Structure formats: C-alpha cells, structure tokens
Amino acid sequence: MSTPTYNRIIRKLTVAFGDLFNNITLVRYNEDLTEQERFLVPIAYASQEMYLIRLQGDPDLDKKVQMTLPRLSYVLNGINYDYSRKQITNQKNFVSNASGGVIAQYNPVPYDFDFSLYLYVRNIEDGNQVIEHILPFFTPDYTIKLNLIPEMGVVKEVPIVLKNVNYSVQDEGNRDSDPRIVIWTLNFTVKGFIFGATSPVNIIRNSITNILSGVSETDNIAFNMNVTGTGTYKDGEIVYQGYSLATATATAKVLYYSNNILHVTEIQGNFVSSMPIYGAQSNAKYTFTSYAVVPLQLVKVNIVPNPTNATPNSAYRYTTTITEYPNI
User: Among 309, 306, 303, 304, which residue's Cα sits nearest to residue 101?
Assistant: First the structure.
C-alpha cells in the first residue's frame, strides 16, 4: 500500500489568507474627533449565512452569550485549475535531505483558490473605516511568501487578487431606525499550487561512458551472457529475441561462443538484457548482462566520487579514469 500524501497546502493557504486580516484595529471617535475607544476586529472561519442566522436570532445582542460587532469571517468557496500557469508536469525537482540522501518531487499543479471575506458592522462608519484599512494593500493583488514544502525548500510567492467589493444592508424595521447590520463582501482569488508526494532518489556513484566510432550491422558485438541458461550456441547460426525466429524483435549471426561470451555480427533490431537470446539451431537460451563493440571502442571514461561514500551534503571531488583503445 502506498504512503498517503498530505502536504497540507489547502490548510496553509487558508490560514495564510485569514492571517492577513487578523490584526485590524477599529477606532471610534467622539463628536469632537477625539478617540473614544479602540479594539481589534475579531475574525473567524465561517460562512456569511452562519453569522446572519446568529444575528437574526438575537437582533438586540442582549443575551448572555452575545456576538459583538464589528466582526470578520472568511470562507473558501472553491478551487479551479489555472491553465495560464501550467508547468511541465513530468519535470522533477531534487534536493538533498539531512540524512545525506536525495528526495525528488514533480512540479506542482496551479490552482486558483476563491475566498470570500465578510465584514459585519452595526453602522456604516465602522464599515468604511475597516474597508479603507484593507483596500490600499490590493492593487489589485497583494503577494505573500509561504513555505509550502519545507523538506524540499519550496518557498512560493503567492499573489492574492482582490476581484470585487460590495455591501448590503439588512434593515428590518421602520425607515427612521438605524440599520440592523451592514455586510461588506470582498471576493479574492489566491494563486496557489497543489503538490504531489516526495520520493527518495537513488544516488549514482559510478558513471561509465564508452566512446565508440559507430555501430553498424557488420560490427562484432560481444555479449557477456549470464551463467544461468541452457545449451551452447553454434558458430554461424542465427540467434534472436522474441517468441519465434519469424516474429523476432532482434536477430544476429553467431561468430563464436566462448567463456560465456557470445560474439555476433549482422545485427538487426535492438537486443535487450531482460529477454533471453535463443539459438535458432542449438536452442541455447541465455540472457546477457552487458555488451561491448569489438574492436570499435575508442575510449572508456569511468567517474566515481572521492571518497566513494560521499553524500550530497558532504564535500567531495571526482576521480576520473580514462582508458583509450588501444591503450596509448
């Protein structure tokens, strides 16, 4: 069973959005414009309907458990794929971890997260003050920096775009009475991403490069065969891979077979190490571990880290061994 993947991206974006409006201070003034009182406007994750039901059930806010105004709430309305920010999906990013290994993760998928912010006030003046505190920061976007995948070091600058602002007045009663509640609604789009799982990556500790002058069907190819198999290939017979010689995916002519090394020529198709090579006459059957082109190999370059037990987080160099053929 695969390990569940949960990077908490939606939670991080939701918390970060709400935190933008978490320290708004409202000041009320006397008629001579001297300060009367000031307080922080509380904020919670809740829909507009939840607060309206609470307020309409207690219009005078005189019960023992009261809901004071002004107040903010916000809610995630939906998530939509953003085609305009699509990245190469099969590209991986690699980082080294604290244990000396390497982990990888595919590019994230861009999504737009639609949020609504609601402001509930008892009078229009309170609402105007809070709105004027928010709007100057959005032109129409405001960018925040989030550490989305700490183990990968992924820190993204996430734009938050203000789409529109409107308000409504819930005014039951006669026209001379004060409005019951004023509700401001601000709609935003957060330009976020969704990330997949991280996975460990095997470290390449030995790189071998063979430089050849060219491979053609007339070359002599030496296959290093596995010791487990049956039969002995015959000189001059045809060998093949596939269900039969008639439907073979690759064929060649045997030059000779000695010491588990099969020398062939007149190659047609591509031989793969995961499939056995059959002898059309001898019925010999072996798989191979490696092959070499004889005598057209010119240079062999062998690269290993120094020290050989080096990790991506340690200081190391490379040891390069170059062998020329013939070795001059």
Answer: 309
How far apart CA 269 and CA 271 sit, in angstroms, is: 7
- Long-range contacts of range 35-44, CB-CB < 8 Å, 24 or more positions apart? 41/70, 41/71, 41/72, 41/119, 41/130, 42/68, 42/71, 42/72, 43/18, 43/71, 43/72, 43/73, 43/74, 44/71, 44/72, 44/73
Element (DSSP H or E) covering residue 49: helix 48-57
Give the tens place of pLDDT for each residue, 173-219: 555 555 568 999 999 999 999 999 988 888 788 888 877 665 565 66
Amino acid at 113: F
pTM greater than 0.85:
no
Cα distance between residue 35 and residue 207, in whole Å: 74
| C-alpha–C-alpha distance, residues 159 and 140, integer Å | 10
Q: How far is CA 305 from CA 96, 309, 319, in A?
A: 16, 8, 6
- Smallest CA-to-CA distance from 107 within 88, 123, 120, 121 is with 88
> Which among 213, 222, 215, 220 is positioned nearest to 277, based on CA atoms?
222
DSSP state of 233: P
Mean pLDDT is lowest, of 90-104, 244-258, 275-289, for 90-104
pLDDT tens profile 93-125: 888 877 777 899 999 999 999 999 999 998 889
Q: Which two tokens stand for residue 317?
A: 């160099």
